[in-house]
Amino acid sequence: MSSFSEEAKMRLSDGGFNLVLISGNRVFESKERGIRALLSLAKSGEDWSGASAADKIVGKASAMLYSLLGVSEVYAEVMSLPAKAMLEKKEFALNMQS
To answer: Residues of 28-61 as b/e, b for ≥16 C-beta within 10 angstroms?
Structure first.
């Protein structure tokens, strides 16, 4: 796991966020629930290629959006089996809470 992943994971737990993305010196944090924040990012057209994400809950829709955004690492406190399977197939670096 990269230092960006560790920082995203720390910000998720310490800041009370539901989603944290880190790419280089860019940081996106959201307290919104569900996939609303990811949808907004996808619509913005911003490039998040290679970003590390930390998320409270990752379902299949979130996994698809992470793939669309170009995120390369995903940490999740809870991840559905379909989301895990999809991200593994696309060779994401995964880390889940034990």
So the answer is: bbbeeeebebbeebbeeebebeebbbbbebbbbe
90: which 2 tokens? 């696309």
Residue 12 has pLDDT above 80, yes or no: yes
CA distance 24 to 50: 9
pTM: 0.88
Residue with tokens 């860019």: 26
* Cβ neighbours, 10 Å, residue 66: 27
- pLDDT of 40: 95
Across the range 4-30, mean pLDDT stands at 93
